[in-house]
Design goal:
By secondary structure, this protein is an alpha/beta fold. It has 10 helices and 12 strands. It has a single domain, classed as Alpha-Beta Barrel (TIM Barrel). Helix 2 links the parallel strand 2 and strand 3. The radius of gyration is 19 Å and the shape is globular. 45% of the residues are buried. The chain binds S-adenosylmethionine and iron/sulfur cluster.
Length: 333
């Protein structure tokens, strides 16, 4: 097996696939309320096309696949797709990121089809603030989605919280508290300057270190947890059942050095970096009848495009806070 290694020596072990750009929420930092230019249906990758890419990448050392979107649970026949991914020899983990509202009805079938883990996005524990940030009145369904995920033992269930100053900074201790008695991992994500979130300013980003300080002020020093794959730093409140993850995408200098992932968008673009509009179109050559070995070479080319780092940094005058134009629902986070 020849691993997929980029020009900076990072071994690609993780692929995120965005299976749709459609979503039943309109989170303010992710999508505009209306006037969205959807990817035309005929330009959305079929499940078979995604599988073809994965069947090339897994034997090259990719161990983890995450399904995302848009909202992945709105796409039809997802469970059959999950079953097919799980049949790929060598894959260690298949996970999904969701806003959670369809989990109460879909969790049993997802479990049966072999899905290992779920991340559920929840930025506030307040019903009204939830309606504000998502522009949808669905707080109860999302909470029920989290309960259902725990019931069906998608282990561990992770909660993604995008930290935004002036919106949910006052809730950081309450989110941390959730990990004390429950085996969940709460992951605080720095607000990233993508598409819609470009309207937010530097001052609205809460850096990972500040989040850690807020939690430690309440609970004392956090214990680091050994966590191998990826750029999250993981901690535990002493004696807690769950964990706390800090994703310092913009503030942590070491973030890019541990980046082991590539992304495939719903329209088949391989994106080497979340923060760059650089991409390689895989869908057109696939539909034009490219051979497997030519497709593999194209994927290698995409991996080679990975930059040393994203070049963005919060609070540094020589690296102004600016990101790419593509909307996050197209890339998948
Ligand atoms: N719809 C699903 C969900 O919300 O979980 C999956 C897709 S969503 C694009 C994936 C993740 O990206 C979510 O956790 C979401 O909060 C996060 N996200 C979206 N826009 C973001 C931004 N500008 N900065 C940081 N995280 C963002
Ligand atoms: Fe939809 Fe997820 Fe974006 Fe919210 S973050 S609008 S749920 S894709």
């Amino acid at each position: 097996m020849t691993p997929l290694i980029d020009t900076h020596g990072r071994h690609i072990r993780y692929i995120r696939i965005s299976i749709t750009d459609r979503c039943n929420f309109r989170c303010r930092y992710c999508m505009p309320p209306e006037g969205i230019e959807w990817i035309p249906h005929e330009e959305i990758m079929s499940y078979e096309e995604f599988l073809r890419i994965l069947r090339i990448c897994v034997p090259r050392g990719v161990e983890k696949v995450r399904i995302t979107g848009g909202e992945p649970l709105v796409r039809k026949d997802l469970c059959g797709f999950i079953e097919s991914i799980k049949c790929i020899d060598g894959l260690k983990e298949l996970s999904l990121t969701t806003n959670g509202i369809l989990l109460p009805s879909l969790a049993p079938a997802l479990k049966r089809s072999g899905l290992d883990r779920v991340n559920i996005s929840l930025d506030t524990l307040d019903r009204d603030k939830f309606s504000f940030i998502t522009r949808v009145n669905a707080y109860e369904q999302t909470i029920e989605g989290i309960r259902t995920a725990l019931k069906y033992e998608f282990s561990p269930v992770k909660i993604n919280v995008v930290a935004i100053r002036g919106f949910n900074d006052d809730e950081i201790p309450a989110f941390a508290e959730l990990t004390v008695n429950s085996p969940i991992e709460v992951r605080f994500i720095e607000l990233m300057p993508m598409g819609c979130a470009s309207k937010y300013g530097d001052h609205e980003v809460i850096c990972s270190q500040e989040i850690r300080d807020i939690i430690e002020e309440r609970y004392g020093a956090l214990d680091p947890v050994d966590y191998k794959l990826g750029p999250a730093k993981v901690f535990r409140i002493r004696g807690a059942k769950g964990k706390i993850g800090l994703i310092g995408a913009l503030s942590e200098c070491s973030f890019c050095s541990s980046c082991n992932r590539i992304r495939i968008t719903a329209n088949g673009h391989l994106r080497p970096c979340l923060f760059s509009d650089d991409h390689i179109d895989l869908l057109t050559p696939i539909r034009n009848g490219i051979s497997d070995s030519e497709l593999e070479r194209l994927i290698e080319k995409g991996v080679e495009l990975k930059q040393h780092d994203h070049g963005l940094c919060v609070g540094k005058p020589d690296h102004p806070y600016q990101g790419c134009e593509t909307l996050m629902n197209t890339i998948g986070g």
